[in-house]
Design a protein that fits this description.
heterodimer; A: 553 residues; mainly alpha; two-stranded antiparallel sheet; two-stranded antiparallel ribbon; 26 helices; 52% helix; 4% strand; B: 447 residues; nine-stranded mixed sheet
Chain lengths: 553, 447
């Protein structure tokens, strides 16, 4: 209880200082480093142009109209949600508006990529595909340590192929060598101290190759679901494909000194086989690449071989898987669905092959890839149009797709909307504490989707009750000048129109339509003091409860 | 109350307070829904559903109450004791109301009602980890990284339609693994509540009702309309379910049926029978919810994971279960709900015959007990048992189990009893056909 009181006093003091600051000041916006050299490079320009051309051609062939470009604030909202899990602040939108129009989006991408929040948020999103969301075995698995480490790698913009190699092949203690948590999460608490090659094979193929071959664990593929083999020798997947991949993890062993490799074999009893047999490690396609690895086959561990093969520049599935996931993080929907089920031998949607090749050529630079995607016409397209929008327009990327925000995006956005200033890693620690405490409680009730990150799902009654009547909404909209912007806007906005407009910008990142402005100004007109504040609280409640607020668009 | 008397215009405008004073309450919503027809059952469909449930002059069961014993209850301390045997432990057995059947002595009240129960003492699965086994037991499928299967309550709500104002799938005292809609959609997730005493969270607006109504009016008529402009035609039904879920939430907020969640509305002597525990109150709330038309209620009792001090822990948990389970059956019968409700009582796996050095029993999916009761299931029947002298051969654990049944057979049995064609294939969102259950109904349990 004392902690809560202390927190409140802190928040109150902080709120007072914010209150005394000028509502319209934007002094804390830091100029990000220039990205001109990247953007002006031929490789960047050519990639964006090629992707744009492929989508244009795709829509032309299908005789599908496309939506016009979205406005800069909508694009900024998409980018903030994708990279930081929250919406832009009122303060940020004001700063953005001061930029020359053509530079706004690139400047915004630079600012976000330079912001530690992005590294931390993307780390959490990537971690879901590497280790899932569960806590895993006690002591030998440290999820938070793992995610923090991952955040550091992303912040430094480490080459993605290098990062993945470390995940697959690192040795040492789960605290000192956080990458090994990729393996230790699969340790069975009552087991033999060895990470589970079966779970690791499934993870490796999904997270790094974008392929679901899990069904081969138990039997050969008889449904034509899994095509493997090389381009010129395509074939159905077999049970052995899965277990030969698993065999690359057979040497990993965990002890008090951490993870290391011994020379253990992988044994498995195949379906209908009489007895268990030793399964040799082998990759399910592009086996020829194993011959070309810069490793000494005698001394390299099986995991090192696998890591090199997965990330080999000619092993296209790795680049495709990365592009598809980054695309999904940015759009809320992958190019190929599900995100980790990309066919090995085509067909591919527009954009995928070009981006995959360009990503390899750009030395597996994730920030570069994010910037390219953000620069495409498809990403900058509006989600509404002046023709009749149908499912097929969404499917073909002719309009920006509507996707439901994840719970932490909704919570983060609510907390940000209630503060006109940016709540970022520079923010006061008390604001941060409040943010995390409230987010976690909210996420639990709103319902985390776990690893099913990109499932297309509608809203639930529990979510609506939580948004309409829940504690976070109450605290962020009711009479509390220290914690919510509604009260500050009521006091500080010079006109009724300005008040409504500020609330719209803070919550929905846009200005109201004339109908909306008329409706809400009508409510406020002639109101003074507490009554005026209540009207602003009502407006905040309405905007927080809208579809527009809890969906990406 | 006559709904027609409230046919005023939903988009009316007034000038009191901060804007309009429309009543976005249950009545206008019901009316609006009638016009839109979206996701609401038409009277004809409703009559057909009812007619179907009463087919053949017999009332078919319509609801499921699942007493979920999270952590792995020991079969040897509860429904399948072997006192005096090598692995029997300290547990004693008592005679039950079903001639020839003995169960653990801690279940004294339950023992008097075993003639009403269909007991399966030979359930098996291949999952020995809590999370995976819980998934397996709640969905009837082993975890599959490519999709999430729906739990039995979600299947029920998906397959059968109703006009109930509160969520039809409820989980009382859940841990993080409450029943999910899985590939059927989040709208079939269990609605989660805690100890059913007093109001459930977030169903009361934090502003006065007229102010709340004005807020909802601005939302629905101004902001939502603006968002829909230029976007998908059926943006709500086909995509966001936003309006629909707001309407359901508001309908629920003003529903009389909410009272079903609060057991303090029950007489003291009724409450007392269930025991003074949150789980006991949960069982009573489950009856009240089924009474107003809820399809599936799971009530969770934890505390079964007895790796150390098995006897003490199991006995303690059983002491909570016993009065609640017995009172549940008695009270369902007293309210004439027993025939229309199937009760399932069990956990994710059983416990090892071997007692470890810490006096505990570990996880054991190779032969454990699930008790069923009610509906049109046979009463006073026992299927299978585990051996009092098990060989414990790791290669062939099922030789210690008479008449083994996979856990999915329990699903198939219950779904069949509810009139659901469990072999029917549904389509997952990526178009993969998936049977509702891959189990086989257990013939001995069906009347």
């Amino acid at each position: 209880m004392w902690a809560r009181n202390l927190l409140f006093i802190g928040v109150a003091v902080l709120g007072l200082s914010v209150l005394s600051a000028n509502l319209l000041s934007s002094s804390r916006i830091v100029e990000p480093p220039s990205a001109a050299a990247i953007i002006e490079s031929d490789h960047f320009q050519q990639t964006v142009a090629a992707v744009d051309q492929e989508f244009r051609e795709h829509l032309r062939v299908l005789e599908t109209e496309s939506a016009p470009p979205a406005d800069y604030a909508t694009i900024a909202r998409r980018l903030s949600l994708a990279l930081t899990g929250t919406i832009p602040s009122f303060e940020e939108l004001r700063a953005l508006k001061e930029m020359p129009e053509q530079q706004r989006t690139q400047w915004w991408v630079s600012r976000l990529l330079n912001d530690r929040r992005s590294a931390d948020y993307l780390a959490e999103r990537f971690a879901r595909s590497y280790v899932g969301t569960q806590n895993g075995p006690f002591i030998v698995y440290r999820r938070r340590r793992f995610v923090t480490w991952l955040g550091n790698q992303l912040q430094e913009n480490r080459r993605y192929d290098e990062l993945v190699r470390e995940l697959i092949s690192d040795t040492g203690l789960w605290t000192d060598s956080p990458a090994v948590n990729f393996l230790t999460v699969t340790l069975d608490e009552n087991g033999d101290g060895r990470p589970d090659p079966i779970r690791l094979a499934a993870r490796t193929s999904r997270a790094f190759l974008g392929m679901r071959i899990d069904c081969l664990q138990c039997h050969d593929d008889k449904l034509g679901n899994v095509w493997l083999g090389d381009e010129d020798a395509q074939r159905d997947g077999e049970q052995a494909d899965f277990h030969r991949l698993a065999a690359f993890y057979s040497e990993a062993q965990s002890s008090l000194l951490g993870l290391k490799d011994d020379d253990s074999d992988y044994k498995y009893q195949y379906l209908n086989a009489e007895e268990e047999e030793v399964v040799p490690p082998q990759v399910p396609f592009n086996g020829g690449l194993l011959e070309t690895l810069p490793l000494d086959e005698e001394t390299a561990t099986r995991r090192e071989l696998l890591a090199r093969w997965v990330t080999h520049p000619n092993n296209k599935p790795f680049a495709r898987a990365t592009v598809n996931r980054v695309w999904a993080l940015m759009f809320g929907r992958p190019l190929v669905e599900p995100v980790d089920d990309i066919p090995l031998h085509g067909d591919y949607p527009p954009g995928l092959e070009t981006l995959a090749d360009a990503f390899v050529k750009a030395d597996y630079d994730l920030k570069w890839l994010i910037r390219v995607i953000a620069s495409t016409e498809v990403f900058q397209r509006d989600s509404r149009a002046n023709f009749e929008v149908t499912d097929k327009h969404e499917l073909r990327w002719a309009v920006f797709p509507l996707t439901r925000l994840r719970p932490e995006q909704v919570a983060g956005s609510m907390i940000q909307a209630a503060s006109l200033k940016t709540i970022d890693s520079q923010s006061h620690i008390i604001v941060q504490l409040t943010r995390f405490g409230q987010q976690n409680e909210f996420i639990q009730r709103y319902g985390d989707m776990g690893e099913d990150e990109f499932d297309d799902r509608g809203g639930t009654v529990t979510q609506r009750l939580l948004l309409m009547n829940g504690q976070l909404t109450r605290e962020r909209t009711t009479d509390n000048p220290f914690m919510n912007a509604a009260a500050r806007i009521a006091t500080l906005a010079p006109t009724d129109e300005k008040a409504v407009e500020t609330a719209y910008l803070a919550v929905l990142s846009r200005r109201p339509s004339s109908d909306e402005l008329g409706h809400f100004v009508g409510h406020i007109q002639g109101k003074k003091g507490a009554e005026r504040q209540r009207c602003l609280e009502d407006l905040y409640w309405v905007l927080l409860n809208s579809t527009e607020f809890s969906w990406n668009h | 109350m006559n709904r027609k008397s409230h046919d005023h215009d939903v988009i009316a405008h007034g000038f009191a307070g901060c804007g309009t004073a429309d009543h976005w309450n249950r009545r206008t919503l019901l009316k609006a829904a009638g016009v839109a027809g979206a996701a609401w059952l038409t009277p004809l469909a409703e009559r057909l559903t009812l007619a179907d449930e009463q087919a053949g002059g017999k009332t078919r069961p319509r609801s499921v109450i699942m007493l979920w014993l999270q952590g792995g209850p020991s079969q040897l301390e509860s429904f399948d004791p072997h006192p005096g045997s090598k692995y029997g432990g300290e547990t004693q057995a008592i005679q039950t109301s079903l001639p020839g059947l003995q169960i653990g002595s801690t279940l004294a009240q339950t023992a008097e009602l075993m003639h009403e129960v269909a007991l399966v003492r030979s359930v098996t699965s291949k999952e020995g980890d809590h999370e995976r086994a819980t998934y397996n037991a709640k969905t009837g499928f082993r975890p599959d990284p490519t999709l999430i299967h729906p739990s039995i309550g979600a299947v029920l709500c998906h397959q059968l339609q109703d006009r109930v104002e509160i969520p039809r799938h409820v989980s009382i005292l859940p841990n993080e693994w409450s029943g999910r809609g899985g590939y059927l959609g989040d709208q079939f997730d269990a609605f989660r509540i805690g100890d059913p005493v007093g109001n459930i969270p977030d169903v009361k607006p934090f502003v006065a009702q007229d102010r709340f109504d004005r807020r909802v009016n601005s939302l629905m008529n101004v902001v939502e309309s603006e968002f829909a402009r230029g976007r998908l035609k059926k943006i709500d039904e086909g995509k966001t379910l936003h309006r629909t879920s707001i309407q359901s939430a508001i309908r629920m907020m003003s529903s009389e049926q909410l009272k079903a969640f609060d057991v303090t509305n029950e007489a003291k002597d009724v409450r007392d029978q269930f025991g003074d525990t949150a789980f006991g109150r949960g069982c009573l709330a489950a009856i009240r919810l089924v009474e107003v038309g809820v399809r599936c209620v799971e009530v969770t009792l934890s505390g079964w994971d007895s790796h150390i001090n098995n006897h003490e822990l199991q006995t303690g948990a059983l002491a909570t279960l016993d009065p609640a389970f017995a009172a549940l059956i008695r009270e369902l019968k007293r309210r004439d709900l027993f025939d229309q409700t199937i009760v399932i009582c069990g956990g994710e796996f059983g416990r090892t015959p071997t007692i470890n050095p810490a006096g505990g029993r570990d996880h054991w999916p190779h032969g454990f007990s699930v008790a069923l009761a009610g509906g049109n299931l046979r009463r006073g029947v026992v299927v299978g048992e585990t051996s009092p002298d098990p060989k414990l051969d790791k290669e062939n654990p099922l030789q210690d189990v008479a008449e083994p049944h996979n856990i999915e057979d329990i699903h198939a049995t219950v779904l069949h009893a509810l009139g659901i064609d469990f072999e029917r294939e549904l389509e997952t969102p990526i178009g993969r056909p998936m049977a509702i259950s891959k189990g086989k109904a257990i013939p001995h349990l069906l009347a």
